[in-house]
Amino acid sequence: MALRLGDTAPNFTADTTEGQIDFYEYLGDGWGVLFSHPADYTPVCTTELGAVAKLKDEFTKRNTKVLALSVDGLENHKGWISDINETQNTTVNFPIIGDQDRKVSELYDMIHPNSSENFTVRSVFIIGNDKKVKLIISYPASTGRNFDELLRVIDSLQLTANYSVATPANWQQGEDVVVSPGIKTEDIPSKFPKGHKVIKPYLRMTPQPDL
Length: 211
What we know:
Belongs to the peroxiredoxin family. Prx6 subfamily. Belongs to the peroxiredoxin family. AhpC/Prx1 subfamily. Helix content is 30%, strand content 24%. By secondary structure, the protein is an alpha+beta fold. It has a five-stranded mixed sheet with strand order 5-4-3-6-7. The mean pLDDT is 93.
């Protein structure tokens, strides 16, 4: 069965470049990003792992840990990390799972036979601090992932988990947000004292409440 939004993210133990981990223990009470790669020494993924390493502080600010996966083994991973560090001018600072037995890949439905019978597609899962799946995106091998967008999504998910709001198209930190439809317009001032604007009865905007 494929995972869907709102499902509990399956726990697993796996050998990684930083030792064996239990996924739930690794995440603790924080959020997580699990993302897969078709194989080691692939050019697009080399740039992606470098990009994530450079964003480590941004993920940490959001109480979010990252965990990568490739179906190749740990010895391959070590050589690949050396290449990533050299070519991307960074230091890989998060674990990479060696998933040669495809255990985690199959648990998270990362292998799509019509794309490749042997390799994972380039999937991304954002896991909330409640261990629920909050976002799933699968990319083709030819298109590099936008990790700034994933940070933006985490900002939105964490904000909307704590306030009765949603974020509009292309929203960025600090911009106005949408008041949830379940809140009556007359109740908005008490819940969102920074003010609000009624554009349509179903579209009410308010400043970001946690700033």
